[in-house]
Specification:
By secondary structure, the chain is an all-alpha fold. The protein is built from four helices and no strands.
């Protein structure tokens, strides 16, 4: 797969996670809030950039280093989105960020385990 295709896949995946998160947060925590075009576009772009940031996990860095760098990069991009949209920052904002980050991580781990189990199952079939 070419580098551009891989980057595009990461970007689009990030947009998907970001869009779903934005819809859930605005629907359940900010009832009655009407998203603006600028908010939606910034969520798409920043989420895509966060998706690109996950490429760091393919590097030779230690997992903990990659995780810390990804968390910091994600938080900085999140703050950029908050600044662009003139959203207020409260303790709830930080808590929501951390909870969402952890939930998305759990989803990614579950997806990876499913893929690994599927590959291992196919390998076992080939050995027979």
């Amino acid at each position: 797969m070419s580098r551009i295709n891989r980057w595009l896949r990461y970007f689009v995946t990030g947009v998907g996670y970001g869009a779903i998160t934005y819809l859930i947060v605005t629907t359940f925590l900010y009832v009655g809030m009407v998203p603006t075009k600028k908010e939606v576009i910034s969520v798409f772009i920043v989420s895509g950039l966060i998706g690109l940031l996950t490429i760091i996990f393919e590097s030779d860095l230690a997992m903990l280093t990659s995780l810390v760098l990804h968390l910091l990069g994600t938080f900085l991009l999140f703050l950029l989105m908050v600044w662009i949209n003139h959203w207020t920052i409260t303790w709830l904002t930080f808590i929501i960020f951390l909870v969402v980050y952890l939930i998305i991580w759990l989803i990614c781990i579950i997806e990876q385990r499913k893929s690994i189990n599927k590959i291992n199952s196919q390998l076992k079939k080939l050995k027979r």
